[in-house]
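Notebook entry, structure prediction.
Reason for the run: the old model in the group folder had no record of what sequence produced it. Starting over properly, with the input documented here first.
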Amino acid sequence: MRCHTCDTETDVRTRECPTCRTPVGSPTLYPGARVRPVRGVGRAASAAVAATAAFLLLTVAVQPVNALLAERAADSRDTETFLLTAGVLELSAALLYQVAFLVAIVLVIIWTWRARTNLDAFPGAGPTNSDGWAIAGWLVPFVNFVMPHRVVASIARESLWRLSTPVLVHVWWGSWLVFLFAERFSARSSAAEYEALPYPQTSTDFQAYVDHYLTATGEYLVPAVFCAVAGGSLIVLIQSISAAQTARIARSMPTGPILPGMTIAATADPAVPAAPDQAAAAAPGSAPSVGLGRASAVPDGPGGTI
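New structure, fully documented this time:
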């Protein structure tokens, strides 16, 4: 017989499908289990993650621009305009990045929780953590260095039918951790260097600003690269997992003919009047006969098979 989840030919003597590990004879979804859509929120989360990486790269691009402004200000001695323009550019890029970062975090948490709760409706899936960790794992201090990786790894294995965690999950999480520490270090280092700069009045002072912004470019570029790698990996994971779960949920609603061995949900049939000969044959106290609207091969109640 064929697996209801992946349509692989399975041997009834085996316990589970060799492709998707669904128990032989089990439906695609547990009857009555609630599933949540993940494709829409996955697309929104992917867009927010991409925007976060783009705006972080923008904060890097602002640094050489400010260095150029410092060189020009050294000739014109227009100190106030230089400081104001450089400050506005850095502040604008930082605000765009922070807003995109917060939106991405919220959407990724929502997507992670939905994808994790869907695993409970998949026969054969064996998530290693409760669905509450899909949210708390991102928020609890120190735990959030480990738990999001474990949750997403479980989602990826069960949704993509992998025996081991996909390499892309490790690439995503490793890049993300490097980004977090590198970004914190570079931000503190750059802020300390900027505080030590003199008020620009002479050519030497302006040159100190030029050197600072050029140094900051290199310092900011390292975490930005790791952020881009982590963001790209996460986007691929979100899209592939969302597509796999959406396809499995859609497959649970058969659109073709009902085949032997297929698990179906029993539906309530309207009352069908009995034929005259059946009505005459029925005696008080006797067992009711099978109505014309229901096939006797299908047992009453949900989960009947033919």
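Summary: The first helix runs from residue 39 to 76.
The old model has been moved to the deprecated folder.
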